[in-house]
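Reviewer 2 asked us to include a model.

Predict the structure of this chain.
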Amino acid sequence: MNSRITTDLSGRVALVTGAARGLGKTISQTLALAKAKVACVDVNLESLTETTNLIQAAGSEAMALAGDVTDAHRVEEVVNEVLTRWDRLDILVNNAGITRDSLLVRMKDEQWEAVLNVNLRGVFLFTRAAARPMMKARGGRIINIASVSGLMGNPGQANYSASKAGIIGFTRTVARELAGRNITVNALAPGFIATEMTAQLGAETLEAIRKEVPLGRLGEPQEVADAVLFLASDAAAYITGHVLTIDGGLTA
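Predicted model (structure tokens):
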């Protein structure tokens, strides 16, 4: 964990969904390294505890909260638990996401619904819940993890691409709605990042991907986490409604 951005988030509270592994884990650790208190949310409590233990071992504050991002009642509970413990919520990172890839004509209803529920409904529920205390405090940062698949499409991912394109539209609209309360809302659109999810594609597919990326490599989770840190910081105070691609030039 070695962020290249020097940013102090002392006194601020962040909530990260999908924090048990991959991007969410790295994002949580990076925000904690910048001295934010971090509420880590995931359905996998065992792996989630590993994330919070690493943060606490590094000398930062963190709490693990088991929760399904598609459960509206639990989402409200999670936000309230954060407010009860730390009395504020400054940064929300909507990172939780899943894939259920299949060509359109073979895609089952449950594959479509599962991806849209987690990837898009989850963003809606957590943003709605977090916006209320942020509006009261007249400030906040909301950062949604979209994907280049929501910008350029990807065969076999009609559900995933639709969910990520939905996040982009959602981000731009909510940015306009909340700007008057000094709340910025932005999205990141990562390309192919070296995570457990990407590794499942196999060596041959990954090599083909590398050839398509102008920089000739996959991105690293820390490179996405650094962008989250930037958008969460005072350095990005005048940026809202923006979609930042982190793709090595793939969509250039």
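The CA atoms of residues 72 and 125 lie 6 Å apart. The domain at 13-246 is CATH 3.40.50.720 (Rossmann fold). We have added this to the supplementary material.
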